[in-house]
Every structure is written in C-alpha cells, then in structure tokens.
Amino acid sequence: xxxxxxxxxxxxxxxxxxxxxxxxxxxxxxxxxxxxxxxxxxxxxxxxxxxxxxxxxxxxxxxxxxxxxxxxxxxxxxxxxxxxxxxxxxxxxxxxxxxxxxxxxxxxxxxxxxxxxxxxxxxxxxxxxxxxxxxxxxxxxxxxxxxxxxxxxxxxxxxxxxxxxxxxxxxxxxxxxxxxxxxxxxxxxxxxxxxxxxxxxxxxxxxxxxxxxxxxxxxxxxxxxxxxxxxxxxxxxxxxxxxxxxxxxxxxxxxxxxxxxxxxxxxxxxxxxxxxxxxxxxxxxxxxxxxxxxxxxx
Amino acid sequence: xxxxxxxxxxxxxxxxxxxxxxxxxxxxxxxxxxxxxxxxxxxxxxxxxxxxxxxxxxxxxxxxxxxxxxxxxxxxxxxxxxxxxxxxxxxxxxxxxxxxxxxxxxxxxxxxxxxxxxxxxxxxxxxxxxxxxxxxxxxxxxxxxxxxxxxxxxxxxxxxxxxxxxxxxxxxxxxxxxxxxxxxxxxxxxxxxxxxxxxxxxxxxxxxxxxxxxxxxxxxxxxxxxxxxxxxxxxxxxxxxxxxxxxxxxxxxxxxxxxxxxxxxxxxxxxxxxxxxxxxxxxxxxxxxxxxxxxxxxxxxxxxxxxx
Lengths: 298, 308
Description:
The complex is a heterodimer of chains A (298) and B (308).
Chain A: H1 2-45, H2 50-55, H3 72-80, H4 83-114, H5 120-130, H6 135-147, H7 163-166, H8 173-184, H9 189-196, H10 201-212, H11 214-230, H12 233-238, H13 247-255, H14 262-282, H15 284-294
Chain B: H1 2-46, H2 67-72, H3 76-107, H4 114-122, H5 129-139, H6 146-154, H7 171-196, H8 200-208, H9 213-224, H10 226-241, H11 245-250, H12 262-272, H13 276-307
C-alpha cells in the first residue's frame, strides 16, 4: 500500500528537482544575455592596450580581465575632454528638473484632486489629453521658439544654456496624472480633522498630504531623473559647445571622433552607467515600483 | 445672525480655496502652454510655410499651402523612415511583448534568488540608450567583433562574419536586437505588476477543476492580463515611432537610408538642414500616427470596461 505512494512521491520530487534545475538554467542563460554587454563594457574599460581591446573581441577574453590592466583609459577621458564639466552639467540639469518638476506638478495635481474651483473638470480633462502629445512632435517648433526667446541679462536666445535643457521639462502632464491619482485616493477624513483644528489649506498640503505621499514623490522623481539623465535628442539640438552639454551628447561627440578609441569609449560609457547602476541597486524596489506605476494608465 | 456669519465665513473660505487652487495650478499651466501647446499649434502653422530656422533675408517666409505635405510623397528618406517604423513595430512589438511576459512569468515564481534575476533583467533599462548604442556598435564590429565571433562558434563557422551596421539588410535588425535588449525589462515589470494583481482564488478554483498549468495560463492568466497587454503593445508601438537615440548614434539613418526613421528624418530636416517648415509637416504626420494608436488603445480598453 505504502509502496506505490512512496515511489510516486520520489518520482514527483525528482521531476520537481529537474524542472527547478531547468528553470534556473534558463534564468542563468537569460542573465548572461542581459549582462554580457555591461560586463564587456566594464572589463574593456580597464584594458590599457587598444590593440588588445579589439583583439580580445573574438574570444572569451572579451569578458576576462587579462593583459595590461589599469586606469589609463579613464585618465585619457579626463585629459582629452572636460569630463568633469559634462558630469556637472548632467547632474545639475537633472537635479533642477526633478526638484522643480516635483513642486510644480504636485501642486497642480493637489489642486485638481482636492480643492474646489471653477473649471476644475475641464482643466483635468485638458491635462490628461495633453499626455498624448509626445515631446518629439513639438521638438522642431520648440527649437524655433527657444532660438528666439530672451533671457535675463539681455540674452536673445535660449540656445547653449542650462535653462533650455530644464524649463521645457518641468511641467509634465503624465507626472501630474500620477500625482493626481495618488492624491485622490488619500482619505479625506484626515484633512477634515485638520481643518476643524484650524489648519490652513497650505498647511494641510504641507503637513498632511506631503508626508503621506512619499511613495508617489519617489516614483515621479525616479521617472523624471532617468528621463533627464538619458535625454539626448533635445540637448543635441540646443547645445553646440561642450560648455553646457550633458554626458549623452558628450559621449556621442567623443564617439564621432577619429580615430575611434574603444578603450577610452568604454571607460566613458562605464562612467555614465556605473553611478546609475549603483543608485538603481540601492533603490531597486522604488525603481521597479515607479516603472510598474506607469502601466496603471487609461 | 449666526447662520449669516457662518455663510459669510464659508464663502470667504470658498474664495480662498479657489484662489489657492489657481495659485497652485498656474505654474504648471503656464509651462504646459508655452512648451507644449504653443509649439504644437505652431507646428501645425509651420507645416504650411517654408519657414527656415535661420531666415534668409532675401527669401521671406511664405505660406505654401500643402506643398510640404505633397513633397512628402516623393521624399524617399521620409517613406523609408515610415516603412522602417512599421517594420520595427511588426517585428519588435510581438517579440518584445511575449519576451517580457515570459520573463515576468519566470520572475513571478517563488524560487530563491528571483530578486537577483529581476535586477539583472531590469539593469539595461537604467542604462542610457546612447551608451547602449555605443557598446553594441563595438559588439557589432565587423570582422573580429564579439557577435561575429559568437555566431562563428555556434554555427561552426558557417555564418558570418557580417558587416552588421554597414549592410543595408542587417543594419535595422541589428538595431532592433539592442532595442529589445534595452527595453524588455521595462515591460517585464509592468507585466509583473499585472500578474500580481490576478486574484489567487482564480487559480485555486481552476486547480480544483483539474486545469493544468497550460490551461491556467490560457484561460486565467492571459485574459486577466488583457489590459496590461493592450497597454504594453500600444506603448511599445508608440515608442517604436519615436525611435531616435540608437539610430542617431549608430548609423544616422544610413547606409543609404536603410536605418532611417521618422524622428531621425524630422531632426535631420529641421535641425540639420534648418528646414523647419518641412520638418514640422513630418512632425504632424508623426503626431497623427501616435494619436491614432492612442485612440485605438482607449477604445479597446473601454470596450473591456463595458463588458465587465
């Protein structure tokens, strides 16, 4: 009686172990597919001999730290162009865009979600419909506009400046929508209690809504920061010199130079990528949550 | 007396509330008008003119009617770009969507170390496309490149070496591959969120009814993921029409327009050749395509809402 049962369970276990093993094998193969370009980039960046970098490409040596290793490629990047300036530009543009964006977008979303005023429903509908207009569709006319816009101190164009890379991206219809959805779902009782206690409307936003809304602020901040850090098309058009240019445009122009030095390029690419990967590893859950939240749309 | 007092208080409160609402809304409204609405309307106007970015004093800007749009029909680069965008949609959207769903199903299992794999699969998403494009250009190196070496090994020397980015037939598929590599993790996470929202009792009931894994996937998972799939498919389609960064860096649309896309063409016309009137016409066509896709998305999603 007990015998077939035991053999069934043994067979079942072996089968389960084989299935689990196969799943892990599949996962590892997939992991190799997603990791190999990044590993290859980082390993190559430490290979000082340019001929070796290229020669190693045809074998597994491409992924192994062999040959003359060192930081020469990294030093080259710093000496052949003003790399620290590019980093500074990217970080500055990103920080200012994200901070002002959080402020501007959360304020209007709060008004739409919580305050009573005339025209609110129309305003909400207009903003949601603006999500459809992609930046790409307005890039060229916007270029015509910023080309002729004045700025403080008598400047007659916005080209080659930081603000031209920041201001157009502060207000974002989709971020407003994300904030709105979050605010609308906060229970009203909390605010009503505060109102009775004599709190001002701004006080309610500052002291009750904001502390409750950390997740949505983190989500929007991550999405905006990634978009800003990776932005390429717009800064390519509006920055002509290395002065205010971000890293993405910097590496593209470095890539276009002759002769193409792969070791240096991989060092440059690693320096753009590794900081973001570290931040990503530290705040992984938030990153994943941010991306997941973009799907809850419609 | 008291009631009047209260009413007075409440109207002044209402006024204050309304004032504050407009105060909170104005910065965003102004910015959206100046940097989104005005340029959009301006694009429509520009598309009917021969405006140049830097106007030629001898050739004043004129309204040219539909000339820009008529010229599109004979513009080989434009047509090539449009065809390539559709080509990209036809190949990448089904592959990337099913790949993302597969990855999400794998990651969603309760096995040890899944978090590590999720991190690895998502890693490329946080890598700048410009960097991805440069690293892959190196991988696609003609002759001794890593991808050629790999193909050589797995086909026992029967395939390659190829000049990936210089071959008019291979260049666009090569760009598709790295686009999937970079983007699939994003859709995977959206699917993962969708999977986690499926109520567990549905599977338990199906299990009791004797449904096997495959049947559960077919009759529970897929229908429950319907809206997620619509979203993933249509947002990937829109992204496909925005295709720019990797093409600009790797090939600039070449060789012989083989990797041209609508956006690369818009930027080449408007920024490269300063023909902003013409580039605006291309932008409007691009916008109309995106608009149709978005409307289709909303209609399909709403249908579902009516059913349930």
